[in-house]
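pinned: reference chain
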Amino acid sequence: MDLTPRMAAAASLVTPGFVTADIGTDHAYIPIYLVSSGIIPSALAMDVREGPLARAREHIRESGLESRIQTRLSDGFKALLPGEADSALISGMGGLLMIRILSQSPELTDSLQELILQPQSDIEAVRHYIYDHGFYINAEHMVRDEGKYYQMFRAVPARGPVPDRFRCTEKAHFMYGRILTEKRDPVLMEYLRGKLASNNKIARELARQDTPRCRARLAQLEEEDHIICSLLDAGTAK
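pinned: its structure tokens
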């Protein structure tokens, strides 16, 4: 099965051999790919809506994987028991919804060996949540898919001190990922250049409106631009 660049990048973060629960599975494309490719032995495809779950069942049946991929109607982790999965993949949803799902089932989250997360928004908040709740990020990807940029990462339980190379100590780490920024990921650098140009355009419009709200937004943009410029300039300084 061919996956989109976004889905393929998320799937590549799953540890081989780990039984995986795909939360918000939609068409079950990622579980089907992982199981049919022999990357993982089995999976659970879970969704809060019956419509997407029916499509998932159809695709699983067409792939001949009914015995290896279960489907479950579930709001987040609610239909998953501790120990049933090693890995949980949550992608294609907003970051605040992702945080709600993780926070509603702490005992389930704590039982997992890894979380594969691809938030569509509020990425900084998701990274903060991960580090504040006993996990740390040890792998990251960023891709451009049909004109949109997507960040995704694998988080694992700390169970002791976080290795120095995976600590997030700066705002830039939480905004754009320590791994992505330190390796100067080319997709991230492309995104940052576009973001800087977009911010400059917005700032010019806001400067024409002298209101408290506009001034506050301008201050936010200035802080963000300072971080972006420092990341972009880091490469030219070498």
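why pinned: The chain has ten helices and seven strands. The two ends are 42 Å apart (CA to CA).
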